[in-house]
Design brief:
Chains A, B: Pfam families: Apiosidase, DUF5060, DUF5605. Chains A, B: This is DUF5060 domain-containing protein. Two copies of one chain form a homodimer. With about 500 residues, chain A is an alpha/beta fold. The first copy, chain A, has three domains: about 90 residues, Immunoglobulin-like; about 300 residues, Glycosidases (TIM Barrel, Alpha-Beta Barrel); about 70 residues, Immunoglobulin-like (Sandwich). Chain A contains ten helices and 28 strands. A seven-stranded mixed beta sheet of chain A has the order 1-7-6-3-4-5-2. A five-stranded parallel beta sheet of chain A has the order 10-11-14-15-16. The termini of chain A are far apart. In chain A, about 45% of the residues are buried. Chains A and B meet through β24 of A and β25 of B.
């Protein structure tokens, strides 16, 4: 097989390398043909699944995470896909490529290159099922938005305001004739991949939702074998995208067909077949404090294969508790959406949406946006994408700028009192957010022996006003007595 | 003792009759002399404690609850106070006198004459310790306010903004020289009584707080014997005021000296020595959902001597749960106050204060107002009374009018969804409050076979707009898509 020696490729670190080969097209190549490749960097070997892409084409993708020379060799149960070899020269990443996002400092996130990542997410569940024109419009809107991660589904959505048919499906077949769950539809996957790449090009992470309950096609109630096959195929095709996060489900607890054991199994499959160990989470419907009669329980985010807690809950006050409970990053992925929908989850004010962000963030958690305004053509950002109409995104951008200027936040030893959400790094930095509480002044119990400067931040009007003087120990701060104020308290750097 | 036959008096039903007599002034009449009277209406006998009023004067008070002829005879351990007799002619109450307030229909209140009482309370903890001028000003403010019950303390308050000395004390002695806890100060009690009577004249109930923790005088840490003597004396002097409610404590759980057994004993003393069984409650500091690390528990409002739950909690969402838990009226006596204080309990907006009222009331609970604006002379309504500065009282009046026009509210079989607070009487009347949720329309699952009219209520702007047409079964209602709206849904009365 001297041919293989000629296969020399180049890709950047955390780029996506794809090797393609011709193979059998008869029978069912999706299930009959095993195809993978072993990528080797000296003594390290990474084995990655390949996939059948239709028309006798096979592909295998690889996201290298170190620079230098890699070699690879394919593995298959058919001769023509066995032992294909090549070398891969991994070069420095282009600007903007910082690698996949990882958990950082227990409760936070950072790109693999070490740059902190402060997620400010939004929700467009099935924007990728709305046709080229709407999808391009959504990308355009995203490019002008603060959002750096998006919650989106593999499968189409059936629900109020969501009755259109998608242009294509993940499997061969049709709703009328039934699905051949053993045969994937490569065009569908290529489209999904294109959209994930579009997001990557915008610097946006894709929190890809693998299952969800809002379904009229049967994708929420496939057999266990189909679910597992689907996950393996998704891993093979998608895990080489550095901007992928795996969300096992939106509102898993509304999927009556699935058991906790199923969810455990899905997590383990992803853990086993995503060579890059992208972030993994699962998102609940039920909120114990709202549906207090319910005896449902959340999936245990403490399980080892869960990298961060993805939570639906309207009360951000619990972020501190969840951090302590799970000892992982907490992302409140649904806290109700800015809008005026008939549904309670979609009719909060922009003020409240922004308040959720600040309240969660000040406690060292993260919060996700959504928007649900009644629209004459039922084009609603939360599901379809399109354009943004609300008043919260620019304020979320303002907050994101402040986050990027400061350290990752955690609980402080200073008691800023229960009517404020506060976090920081003790004796260095504090962010204290008052929400709808509106004190006319405040006595702050700052540490003795450290001098601080304080900025008064109007989180709604997006102004930052440095307070005169320096502050130390127990000190009084005059405040405007109106809602949505925050204090940024920063240790004064002493000259040297 | 023919003298007794000459003692013929007249009072109105639920009025306050007082019989006075001369007796010993030597020794300690407060503890040495027992004095009571037995009031008899045919076979019914009500024995009521009398009290020493200083200067050799003894009094015994009685609030008759039935019309007609009553006779009475005094009982004492000293001869000159023994066997004094008289008759009491009880006549119909004057307009405005509806008797004491009782629990009605398990979860509600009504005057003893059957008129529903919808408490809209306020808080002026020590308005009665501020001197004549301020106290008259407070009464004037109350007369122009919506409030029909006030939370107020027997003892003075020591706390931020509360450092003045009261004009008089409940006991003989002084802070410097110490108190004689076995001797009461009749002038102090006469003043308190005058203020309770002033409230009664305004049609306002007095929710009298018997103990509280904010103390520099020692009244929060008296001996058990003193506590019990104090309660007996208070019962003897005050229980004949028809507008009295007993609140055992403000924030009982901050009074470290007292045990749960103490609170039980106080309740039982009041139960035994208040002949009229005025309403009894106890008020917490700790909120489990806010101070979630705490292992404190609430006093069990389910105990038989507690007539209604008096709760401090910032989240009105739990009203339904508390109703079910205690099976008694729920009054959220502190849900934070309208104002701009440095303290979290005193810096919410008027919008939020009004929201608390509507949210609690729609669930069939009751809510209490308070106001805490920073003031150049530290005159703050919550503690001192004075004048009202906020924007909530007129909206509370608006709500009270609506409550009085409708029935007492309970949970309904209709699911108006979790983003609304709703209550009613099934198939007759529903009140649905949306708070900061702001749907642009709503699909209501009204009963079939009943026709309803619907009013759109803007609870902030205080407008009531009848919606066109009649409504039945599942129906769509257009709404303005802005916060603080409610729907009043009333069965259409058919002519006959």
């Amino acid at each position: 097989m001297t041919q293989a020696l000629e296969n020399t490729f180049e890709t950047e670190r955390w780029g996506r390398f794809e090797f393609r080969a011709k193979g059998p097209s008869g029978g069912n190549p999706f299930t009959d043909v095993q195809f993978s490749a072993r990528f080797r960097d000296r003594h390290r070997v990474v084995e990655v699944d390949g996939f059948y892409d239709g028309a006798g084409e096979y592909g295998v993708r690889f996201m290298p995470d170190t620079l230098g020379h890699w070699s690879f060799e394919t593995v298959s149960n058919v001769p023509e896909l066995t032992g294909l070899k090549g070398t891969l020269e991994v070069v420095a990443p282009a600007p903007g490529n910082r690698g996949p996002v990882r958990v950082d400092q227990v409760y936070h996130f950072a790109y693999e290159d070490g740059t902190p990542f402060y997620p400010v997410g939004t929700t467009c569940y099935v924007w990728n099922h709305q046709g080229a024109e709407r999808e391009e419009q959504t990308l355009q809107s995203l490019s002008q938005s603060p959002f750096n991660i998006i919650r989106m589904c593999v499968f189409p959505k059936h629900y109020d305001y969501n009755h259109n048919e998608p242009g294509h499906y993940a499997f061969e077949g049709s709703l009328e004739k039934g699905w051949d769950f053993a045969r994937f539809n490569p065009a569908y996957w290529a489209h999904l991949e294109r959209r994930i790449q579009d997001l990557q090009d915008l610097g946006i992470e894709a929190d890809l939702i693998l299952f969800h309950p809002y379904d009229r096609w049967g994708f929420s109630a496939m057999s266990r074998e189909t679910d597992d096959l689907y996950l393996r195929y998704a891993m093979a095709r998608l895990s080489s995208f550095r901007n992928i996060w795996w969300s096992l489900a939106n509102e898993y607890d509304l999927m009556a067909e699935k058991t906790m054991q199923d969810w455990d199994r899905y997590f383990r499959i992803i853990q086993a077949f995503d060579p890059y160990q992208h972030l993994r989470s699962i998102h609940n419907w039920h909120s114990p404090e709202i549906h207090y009669r319910s005896n449902r329980h959340w999936y245990d985010h403490g399980k080892p294969w869960v990298t961060h807690a993805s939570i639906q809950h309207a009360d951000l006050h619990f972020v501190t508790e969840w951090r302590e409970q799970f000892r992982k990053p907490v992302v409140v992925d649904e806290c109700r959406y800015e809008g005026n929908l008939n549904h309670g989850w979609g009719n909060i004010t922009a003020e409240r949406m922004v308040e959720c962000f600040w309240e969660g963030m000040a406690q060292g958690g993260y919060v996700t946006h959504g928007e649900t305004f009644v629209h004459p053509e039922d084009i609603i950002w939360w599901s379809h994408g399109g354009t943004l109409h609300g008043e919260s995104p620019e304020r979320i951008q303002f907050l994101h700028n402040i986050m990027q200027e400061g350290p990752q936040l955690g609980p402080t030893g200073i008691n800023f009192k229960w009517d404020a959400a506060a976090g920081g790094v003790d004796s260095e930095y504090y962010l204290v957010y008052f929400g709808t509480s509106r004190p006319a002044f405040r006595v702050l119990p700052l540490p003795e022996g450290v001098r601080f400067s304080i900025d008064l931040i109007d989180t709604w009007n997006m102004t930052i006003t440095p307070l005169e003087g320096q502050f130390e120990g127990t000190c009084r701060v005059e405040m405007p007595g109106k809602p949505y104020q925050a204090l940024r308290i920063t240790k004064v750097k002493t000259g040297g």
